[in-house]
Each structure stands twice: as C-alpha cells, then as structure tokens.
Amino acid sequence: MNKIIAVALIAVFICSCSAVDSKEQGKSNWKPEMDQPSELASIMRSLNDEALIRKKSLENGELSQANSKLIFKMITAEPTEPHMVGPAFAPHTEAFIASYGQLNTATDVAAQIDAHNNLVKSCVACHMNFCQGPIPRIEKLYVNI
Ligand code: HEC
Questions:
Q1: Is the pTM of this model over 0.90?
Q2: What is the whole-number distance in angstroms between the Cα of residue 127 and the centre of ligand 1?
Q3: CA–CA gap between residue 142 and residue 41 (Å, rounded)
Q4: Which of 33, 38, 94, 131 is deepest in the core (most CB within 10 A)?
Q5: Alpha helices in 25-143 (DSSP H)
Q6: 100 — alpha (psi -120 to 50), left (phi > 0) or beta?
C-alpha cells in the first residue's frame, strides 16, 4: 500500500516538473499558463532566458555580460513544492554561483563559451537531483564549438 502511495507521489512530482517542458514544445512565444509561478520558478525562467541570449551572442562571436543578481536569491527562494529543494540544494546553488562568476572573468569569446558550457553543466547537475523535467530544454543551451 505504501509503495503505491510513494509511486503516485513520485508521478505527481515528475509531472509537475515536466509539464512546463511539454507545453513549451514547438512554441517560441510560450507564456506560462499558470497565473503565478513560484519565486524559484520565475528566477529559473529568467536564468534560462538570459542563457539563451548569451548563447546567441557567443555564437555571433560577441562577449556577453552576466550580472544577474537573481542567482543570490536562489538559496532562499520559495519553490512550487517544498520537496523540490532538499539538503543538497544549497551546495548545488553555491557551485552554480561559482560557475556563474567565471562568465565575467572570461576575457575572450572562447573562454566565455567554456564558462557558459560549464554553467549549463551545473544547471543540469542540480536538475538531476531536484527537477528533471526541464533537462532536455536546458541541454539546448550548450554552445557547440
Ligand atoms: C541549485 C539547483 C538548481 C540550479 C543550479 C538550477 N536549477 Fe532550474 N530549477 C530548480 C528547481 C528546484 C526547479 C523547480 C522550481 C519550482 O517549480 O518552484 C527549477 C526549475 C527550472 C525551470 C522550470 C521553471 C518553470 O517555468 O516552472 C527551468 C526552465 C530551469 N529550472 C532552468 C534552469 C537553468 C537554465 C539553469 C542554469 C542557468 C538552472 N535551472 C539551474 C533547481 C535548479
């Protein structure tokens, strides 16, 4: 009986995390259909948008500025469901903030592409633990060289 409940809970968790991705597919001007994303979800959307813009500019051979203050709010931001963050969340956030800092110390495009791709790796690393739904979407942020 307990097993059934656990499986049901996991299913709900995975669905709530991946729903966003399936709705988004094929629409470039996708807007969330839920009225109020959580604080953490809106930070994530901005980080995702920012990374897309940076990817474009790097592909055009231009350095891009990264100065989002949002990342410092990640540790305390409210998630949609409390189980979306856990004990490993803060260390992942700190690793992420460290990778993010490297974007600004890069002085040429090749170095910034490296820093950008490392950052995307830390997005994926945290998502493996906490929210797997958006991973295919995050992997599109890699700049291929
Ligand atoms: C420290 C862990 C962590 C890191 C690092 C992280 N995320 Fe997330 N992300 C989450 C969690 C947890 C959620 C679920 C938030 C919620 O629904 O409240 C989420 C949600 C998302 C979503 C779905 C938001 C929505 O519309 O509901 C996207 C897209 C996303 N992240 C992209 C990214 C990108 C891109 C990066 C790197 C630039 C990144 N994430 C880094 C933990 C993380």
A1: no
A2: 7
A3: 21
A4: 131
A5: 39-59, 89-105, 109-130, 135-139
A6: alpha
CB 73 within 8 A of CB 127: no
The set of residues, in sequence order, having a beta carbon less than 8 Å from that of 98 and lying 6+ positions away, is none
- C-alpha span between 81 and 12 (Å, rounded): 11
Contact 120, 112 (CB under 8 A): no
Q: Under a CB-based contact definition with an 8 Å cutoff, are residues 37 and 68 in contact? A: no
131 lines ligand 1 (CB under 6 A): yes
Dihedral (CA of 12, 85, 112, 64) sign: positive
Instruction: Report the Cα 58 to chain-centroid distance in Å.
Output: 19
- Calculate how far, in angstroms, residue 101's C-alpha sits from the geometric centre of ligand 1: 18
Print pLDDT tens along the chain (145 aa).
Answer: 666 555 555 544 544 565 444 444 444 565 555 568 999 999 999 999 999 999 999 999 999 988 778 888 998 999 999 999 999 999 999 999 998 999 989 999 999 999 999 999 999 999 999 999 999 999 999 999 7
**1 CA to middle of ligand 1, Å?**
32
